[in-house]
Design a protein that fits this description.
The complex is a heterodimer of chains A (138) and B (174). By secondary structure, chain A is mainly α. Chain A is built from six helices and no strands. Classes of the chains: A mainly alpha (138), B mainly alpha (174).
Chain lengths: 138, 174
């Protein structure tokens, strides 16, 4: 493939990608703003329920990983369990419900769906293991 | 017959984007009617985000052109294809940790590499390892402590391999 062909192909791919990305960003920003209003009310104090809630909240959130640390740090400060906060931080970076349409379009629906399902499950498993290991070594 | 089928598939894919945008539009209209300030704030923030990521689009375009030019099927097959073996795993782990930037910036390159023979297991492992962000490790230590950061980093790397293996079975190559 020469430079001209590469440029045309890249332009075509970008043209397909941009409309989905803009739509996804619109939805993600809306959901983020909505979720932020209820972050404080989300957690119940129940260890297991909060882990699941944290994982779902993280899956629906979108943004830089650093933001998840800041929000997670705030949660910890407000008494939310480390397990729930870890699930939140993990799914924030590994699960992208809002990015699913774009991921499916670019990498295939089956891949995108299964990847997100397993990343959600793994996020909870990693959270449990992290807390267990920390309890053992501390 | 096959041409007819292909035309139908392309038409179907083309419709998808219109349906998607209709859904986005309907959601925004409903939110605007219920809570106008929320809709306006979200629109403004999306605009700001788009302005911020504009340079990323240039980068994506350059990466796409370069990957079209240099990531030949032979090269991809050798390092990330069926015969890559241990080398493929090491590359997927290393590049996953080292490559920075939002995941959507990498999708076009990965799509291109998939067309050239990139194995599902390496792609999944690469994407999962992008959660170990070297630049953000100090921030994670600041918020959660170094022991926490160490434990979670090691676990993410281990689980990235499980992720790759499982997805490789579930998402079979056509």
């Amino acid at each position: 493939m020469n430079l001209k062909q590469s440029t045309i192909k890249a332009g075509g791919n970008l043209r397909k990608m941009i409309p989905i990305l803009v739509g996804v960003l619109l939805l993600a920003t809306l959901l983020n703003n909505l979720a932020q209003r209820y972050y404080d009310k989300l957690f119940t104090g129940n260890y297991l329920k909060d882990t699941f809630i944290g994982a779902i909240a993280g899956s629906l959130s979108f943004g830089m990983a650093l933001t998840s640390y800041v929000v997670g740090g705030e949660f910890l400060h407000n008494g939310v369990s480390l397990l729930a906060v870890t699930a939140f931080v993990m799914t924030w970076t590994t699960v992208g419900i809002m990015m699913l349409p774009l991921e499916a379009k670019m990498l295939g629906t089956k891949f995108a769906v299964w990847r997100n399902i397993f990343n959600f499950i793994f996020a909870i498993v990693i959270s449990i293991l992290t807390v267990l290991i920390l309890n053992m070594i501390q | 017959m096959t041409e007819n089928k292909n035309a139908k598939t392309i038409a179907k894919k083309g419709r998808g984007i219109y349906i998607f945008w209709s859904v986005v539009l309907i959601i925004y209209i409903v939110v605007f009617l219920v809570d106008g300030s929320l809709a306006m704030k979200s629109l403004q923030e999306t605009g700001i985000t788009l302005l911020k990521i504009l340079p990323i689009f240039v980068l994506i375009f350059v990466i796409m052109v370069l990957s079209n030019l240099f990531l030949t099927p032979e090269l991809v097959k050798k390092h990330f294809g069926k015969e890559a073996g241990l080398r493929g795993w090491i590359y997927a782990l290393l590049f996953g940790v080292l490559v920075a930037g939002p995941p959507y910036a990498l999708y076009p390159m990965l799509k291109n590499m998939r067309e050239h023979g990139l194995e599902i297991k390496y792609m999944a492992t690469f994407l999962y390892n992008r959660n170990v962000k070297l630049a953000l490790i100090p921030a994670m230590i600041y918020y959660f402590g170094w022991q926490y950061t160490m434990v979670i980093t090691v676990l993410v790397i281990i689980f990235s391999v499980f992720n790759g293996l499982i997805l490789n079975v579930l998402v079979k190559d056509n």
